[in-house]
Amino acid sequence: MTVRRLLPAAALTLAACAPLSACDSPAPSTTTAATSPTPGSPGAMRTLLPSRLCAALTADAARELVPGARFTAQVGPDKGTAPDVCAYTSPDGSGSVSLTPATRPYAAELAAAYSLRADPAPAGMSGVRVDTVSGLGERAFRETAYQTQAHQNVTFTVWNAGARTWVLTYASTGEGPVAPGAVGDDEVVGVARTLAREADRCPILGVVVDCCPVSAGSPGPAVPALP
């Protein structure tokens, strides 16, 4: 699974939004482990519960980009904190899509994208392109590139919404770089805009996440309830 800068279930009930003031502390960056290692079992893995971001990036939304997309469970690290990510992968592993908070402010993400475009080889990239995206959050851009070692075409759509910056990542296997189409026709950008519109109605991707249920439909995996 490709996630920007991390390289070097039951239906949700349609409900009215709670006011943002009711959610005045950010959600934790990770969820509690769904399964714990067996004591004394070296190398046992710890599977995390689905991120609450999956209330925004539902299975239906993921399948707009990745046919047959399946939720990808995250494995907890032995030490430290796991990144907060909701991800889906195609049955054959050739495509993936993920939603995650940016690890840096929007301006730093944009500067990093331009730096990568200027010198992509050390990062194992080629054909890096950065385009401005309109009508998405307060500010947004699209970064497209080809990962030479993984043989993947990757699209990062990055947008700023209030105090938070979000990254929707789409990756697909290919033997060579594919020139990106116009931003206005980009399906990844289109899905990001859908998520942003949902945030306008209900601040899942506003200052904090998962304050409100998303609209009815085919949801992602069951999302842990707020404490």
Explain what this protein looks like in three dimensions:
The chain is of the alpha+beta class and 227 residues long. It has a domain at 49-205: Protein Transport Mog1p, Chain A (3-Layer(aba) Sandwich), CATH 3.40.1000. The protein contains 3 helices and 9 strands. The strands form 2 sheets. It has a 7-stranded antiparallel sheet with strand order 2-4-5-9-8-7-6, sandwiched between helices. Strand 8 and strand 9 (164-173) form a beta hairpin. The protein is globular. The two termini are 29 Å apart. The relative contact order is 0.23.
Give the percentage of residues in beta strands.
Answer: 15-25%
CATH architecture of the domain at 49-205: 3-Layer(aba) Sandwich
Number of strand elements? 9
H-E string: EHEEEEHEEEEH
Mean pLDDT, rounded to whole units?
75
Distance between the termini: 29 Å
Helix coverage percent of residues? 10-25%
Number of helices: 3
Low-confidence stretches: 5-40, 206-220, 223-227
Task: Summarize the topology.
Elements: E1 46-47, H1 59-63, E2 70-71, E3 75-76, E4 86-89, E5 95-101, H2 106-118, E6 125-132, E7 139-147, E8 152-161, E9 164-173, H3 187-201
Antiparallel strand pairs: 1-3, 2-4, 4-5, 5-9, 6-7, 7-8, 8-9
Summarize the structure.
The chain is of the alpha+beta class and 227 residues long.
Fill in the keyword field for this structure.
227 residues; Protein Transport Mog1p, Chain A; two-stranded antiparallel sheet; globular; signal; DUF3558 domain-containing protein
